Fold each of these.
Amino acid sequence: MNFIEKIKLSMTGVWSNKFRSFLTLLGVIIGVSSVITMVSLGSGTRLVVGGQLEELMGRQVALFPNWNLPYTQQGVLSLEDVDYLKESIIGAEEVAPFYRGWFRINYEGREYTGSVAGVVENALELTNLKLEYGRMITESDLANHEHVAVIGQRTLEQLTDNTDFASFIGKEIEIDGNRLLIVGVLGIANASVVLSNDVVLVPLTTFRDLWRWYDPYNFLITYDSKSTEEDIINQIEYLMNDKYGTSRGQCKFMPAGIQKEINIYNNILKILILVLGSIAGISLLVGGIGVMNIMLVNVKERTKEIGLRKAIGASSRDIQSQFLIESILLAGGGGIIGIIIGAGFSSLLNFIIAHFFEWWQGYIPAWVILLSFGVTTFIGIVFGSYPAYKASKLDPIEALRYE
Amino acid sequence: MIQVENLTKIYGKGEIAVTALNQVSFSVREGEFVAVMGPSGSGKTTLMNILGCLDSPTSGTYILSGTDVINMTDKELARIRNRKIGFIFQTFNLLPRLTALKNVEQPMIYRGIRRKKREETARKYLTEVGLEDRMHHLPNELSGGQKQRVAIARALVNNPDIILADEPTGNLDSRSEKDILNILTDLNKKGITIIMVTHNEKVARYAHRIVYFHDGEIVKEEIVNAGGGSIETG
């Protein structure tokens, strides 16, 4: 008896009880779709949090005046501190000063109050913002205090209905009454903690000329992969206290990392995975017991068939494999249905989430589909073994007599 | 063809032990048609099960076509049931979800015969038992006599040497009974050895020889029709 015949034989068994088979498999179906949804959602956040955020954005600390102190006692960063910190912090890669403020932005009569940042030429590398069209602020812009701006797409969307963003290069906008020339447009990129897409970048020197009364400098400090955020923050506090002293026992400056935020992301992710994982695990177990239950019923129901098959030449092994394959087909079939439902459900979820968070990149990895299929097949083997063994051990005479 | 000696079968142990067969010695020649008679519990079905390699005796020897089957493995016994023996049951034992044709194909599946060849062979035997127009019917669409004819076709597809029939006409009306017995007689004439268990003296009369069982022992043997062939029962 060859293998294909065995599968065909078992197929008739599954197919003759379609509805019952389907009900039995609900557990397996729910389990598999949970696993797929879980992995898909997990992959979405991990791609962002674990990938870009952690690698590019994660290793940075922003340094602000300590807003918890009374205004007069807050530290004021100076440009000298750029070199001071860069040379003193062990593990520091870049120290970039930046300004940040909120201003009225006008474009052809439409007004929007948005974020404006004064930055140096390497701000893009430090913040993971992406230039889509035109050019970035250059050293000569900084040196000449040029009135130029690199504007984010999100801000542009607030100011105009025109989506041909490249056409804005060379146009002028008005920020707080000052006219600036648009030289570049920022594309949609993963969110940055300090600077988002919804921003207008201007040269640091220009910002200082126009709004120096507005706010003191802030720093963005990036560090290498060998250092930890905690260590960098401790160093910053030590160095700043050493230079500026403390106020009421507190540092006059406030270094802020984003590891805490990343940890919150990761914790939410962990809880999500735990919840979905438990649902998956429990339903797969319940599904497996369901498979075993239905296979025992099958064996009982078909006692007479087993007796007859033995009489016409089936060995115990033939009977055992018939029922084992039936159980594998049953569980594996549930796995396939689960994969389809899970894929559909997670695609829908990813679509919805991506609608709210543009950085979301959920997808369904191929390995989880293979794994789900493998696990359900395994469940078929594990929970089908006992019923199949029982079937093979039936006494043919009693089986034939069974009514 | 069949030679059993001192065959004993005891069910259970100790005080509740029941002796179903007690030192039975018995032989069947090739091409013979033997009827086994006796009241319920006389051991005739136990004998059939042992002869059919479905059950093993507690003690004694069983030589089938020159080979000792007592110590065979499960797989070897399955092979013998598949190729040398054809079973016919009182309750037909057709698989309810399969058509007549598929039912007849089943024994060939275990023999490893390809689908095309299986279908061809099954058609041939169903035609032979007069069911060429019922091949695609399910068992519950067939009459008792037709069901038993499907079962006979199924018993024949692997060219068995022996047919073991356990009350083959027990559930049939007298007209179907006659049909079935005539088919069996024809098969016997073609050289197939037939052993048939029955309650019915009239049915038993179709055989060459009747063996009477009582309390697990052979109490009488009677040669009724040395030449074989059918006898008018009307």
Amino acid sequence: MIRLEKRPQPSRAWSLATPLVAVLATMLFGGLLFAALGKDPVEAIRTIFWDPLFGEFAFYYRPQLLIKGAPLVLIAIGLSLGFKAGIWNIGAEGQYIMGAIVGASVGLAFYPYEAWYIFPLMVIGGALGGWIWAMIPAVLKVRFGTNEILVSLMLVYVAEQLLASASLRFLKNPEGFGFPGSRNLQSYESAFNADLIEGSGMHWGVVAAFIAVIFAYVLLNRHMVGFHIRLTGEAPRAAKFAGVNPARLILLCLGISGALAGLAGLFEVSGPAGQISIDFNVGYGFTAIIVAFLGRLHPVGILLAGGLMALTYIGGDIAQSNLGLPSAAIQLFQGMLLFFLLALDLLTNFRVSLRKVEVA
Amino acid sequence: MKLTTLLTSAAMALGLATVAVAAEKTKVGFVYVGPVGDGGWTYEHNQGRLAVEEAFGDKVETVYVENVAEGPDAERVMTQMALEGADLIFTTSFGYMDPTINVAKKFPNVKFEHATGYKRADNVSTYSARFYEGRAVQGTIAGSMTESNIIGYIGSYPIPEVIRGINSAYIHAKKVNPDVQFKIVWAFTWFDPAKEADAAKVLIEQGADVILQHTDSTAPQAAAQAAGNVITFGQASDMSEYGPKPRVSSIIDNWAPYYLARTQAVMDGTWTSVDTWDGIGAGMVGIGEISDAVPADVKTAALALQASLADGSYHAFTGPVNKQDGSVWLADGETADDGTLAGMNFFVEGIEGDIPQ
């Protein structure tokens, strides 16, 4: 009989190995899925994982990986700090939207005036927008003990309504013939978050994502706050005795994750997306939760996980177009990744034993 | 002959050969905003794609990507299709407008066709359908058949396209039934079965016995069927599985003739950038079969209206029509110009409520 025994210590080897095993398992079962759909599984897997990096048109897809991965990494880094401390911000999508709305509003307020300081102001506005939106669940939790999971999630839908309102009313392009959507910031030089080197995909959001990774690494490993975050997550009682102020930690973690999500929104709206529109948000805030866990809540892991998720998105679209795979199959494939990761996570804390059960 | 020249000419011959092979097949790409199985908007675009495949057989290759978010993802998918050798790319959602223009700049030799937008370029055409003509027919049937005199309308987004539809349906419902009243719910989505079902239920609870929808799923049809004694119209697609009641008729987007003509134009090298806005007459807007649940005299009137719209003897927006605030929009006998229709952002007189802004 198969039994699960709790390990006295979480296995370090399994903790590092599970993401890799999960990716391999996803490839295997995903391949079976594609085969069942009548497609060549090897070609499908190659199209998703290999072509964007080394295929014929890799020169175009590699920069796209940065564009797609940067917001995921930026948001996931913020979320991971809270997740480590057991503070669950599920509403990054809303904070992302608010960052974009506030940031774009700042930029458009100056239109058509050109000045070097407009973009920096927009960046501050974006961070502030996300931060304020995250402060709502934070303050409610600290003050009234509400559940931050529910409050932050519900605020996503409020943010979506505000986004629709922005597109239809206060940010609507006056030259847009009555259609919804703001002016395109790509054609407003002072507000355009362009590639730093043309065609490289390296815009300020990518730079910010790399800085966030380093910042989070230093914070967690070299700073008292990082220690408190880890301690609160791993041993809440010990944290209490060590004098950690839980209210301060909640405000800090939600604040940082909100601000980073807001920044991601701002960099997206001022760069790759270009404009506020009703369907501006495409789920980065939710996907980032997967990225955070796929990366084991570790800054470097998140960087790699963000790249991997971006790869499956881009490769998935290529597979749709070139092989005729339905998008539902691609989504299923991505879902498998998280499923296998969580399932295999069990092995970190438990040992599978085949011993017979002794009768007590 | 030097070795290098030999190699060059060989390479050129090879290059020409590749071009010749590529030229045999015209590659047509389609970018979809929803899943091909949505039963509505994207479904009909995909039917158009299938018609292209069927008509041209080996001479074309079609590719598509579904569920493409508007914005950078759309731009990437279009670029990818262009890189992979597409000759013609149909981008089938309003939100693909700026991405289409961006990508078209980078690939001057690839032709682009953007649905429902207003930005064109030398290699970007736009096309849309005069769905408001179909709404006129719907309004006539709805106004005649309602007993509660309350018609529920599920709007998607308050954009000119949707507002035109509401106005057209209202004007024609009012014509046959002066007591008719419209209740409008904005769903703020094109496709969300749960939200659409909720909207339909709310409208039915408020006394509506006709539901018109400008969203793409069949959920409102199912809600009407469950409520009983409520009629609906198929949207974008025929939705005939809900006939003969609640679905009594439908507006069908028929993109196939346009897609065939444009693909042919690319093959013949006669493609030019145009702005197409076709209606019932050109076959881009189809009226699904009017079911037996509709009384014969109403059906006759609806068909007569459809015929007059098709041959151009009647315009769906013919004066006298006032705006909601009571000011004159169209004088007696005057018809609306396309510019005003394209950017329509007001309700006509008699419709209650504001356009959310």
